[in-house]
Design a protein that fits this description.
By secondary structure, this protein is an all-alpha fold. Helix content is 80%, strand content 0%. α1 crosses α2 and α6 runs antiparallel to α8. The longest helix is centred in the middle third of the chain and has 45 residues. The chain is rod-shaped, with a radius of gyration of 49 Å.
Length: 248
């Protein structure tokens, strides 16, 4: 009898212990599906709903776009985005042979400008050389004139007849050299004047306005002062190379 009471008491304790667990399991599958799981699912969706993520991404994209637009605004005052303004003129960066021997009509005006500029450079170099020759002639005459003055001022006291004759010959020779140099100076001066005139004539059509006009016939975009300045710098080495090929 005592054993039976003890067994019943034990079963009662086990039933009480397992009742809350069974009740929780029941709520989770039953009422929980309508309320618990539903509420739990809503909370999950609120933190990771596609609409919410998209909105956050859009905000980030807008911020980035705004910043990018500000940072990449073309700075035409400094030529920062000059290549965007060049269009076909970007071709001028190629090797000179790439466009100087091109048969395309769009290169014709620029080809003519480069050729004229090279000829003008050669003519200017010739004029500079002629002017340097004149300067050298003048320096020689100045030196000879000083030598003549020194010879003529020589104190001949105590000179023998032979020494006096030798001094007189030196004076005569120096005077003759001066006369010859003066004739050379006259010839070289005329040549320098002609070279200077030739250089001035060769320079016609090689100014910035002429370059801008030539660029306009080639470019498919407006040519402004910035573009002209860029082209002038870019073509400088091409013109030098062409002038070197023309020089004797």
């Amino acid at each position: 009898m005592t054993i039976r009471k003890t067994l019943l008491a034990s079963l009662a304790i086990v039933a009480l212990a397992t009742a809350p667990a069974l009740a929780g399991h029941g709520n989770g599958n039953g009422g929980g599906n309508g309320n618990g799981n539903g509420n739990s699912g809503d909370h999950g969706k609120s933190s990771s709903a596609p609409g919410q993520v998209s909105k956050a991404d859009d905000t980030a994209d807008n911020t980035t776009t705004s910043s990018t637009t500000t940072d990449t605004t073309p700075d035409t005052s400094t030529g920062g985005n000059i290549h965007a303004k060049l269009g076909r003129l970007n071709s001028l960066q190629r090797n000179i042979n790439a466009y100087m021997h091109s048969k395309s009509k769009k290169f014709a005006a620029v080809q003519a400008f480069v050729t004229l500029s090279a000829k003008a450079k050669v003519a200017a170099a010739a004029a500079a050389a002629a002017a340097a020759t004149v300067a050298a002639d003048q320096a020689k005459i100045s030196t000879l004139t000083a030598q003549l003055a020194a010879l003529q001022a020589t104190d001949q006291t105590g000179f023998t007849a032979a020494q006096k004759a030798a001094l007189a010959q030196q004076i005569t020779d120096t005077q003759n050299q001066i006369t010859a140099e003066q004739a050379t100076l006259s010839t070289d001066t005329a040549a320098a004047a002609a070279a200077q005139a030739a250089a001035a004539a060769a320079a016609v059509g090689t100014d910035d306005a002429s370059l801008g006009k030539a660029l306009g016939t080639m470019s498919n975009k407006p040519v402004d002062a910035t573009v002209t300045a860029w082209a002038k710098g870019t073509l400088a080495s091409r013109i030098d190379a062409e002038a070197a090929a023309m020089s004797p």
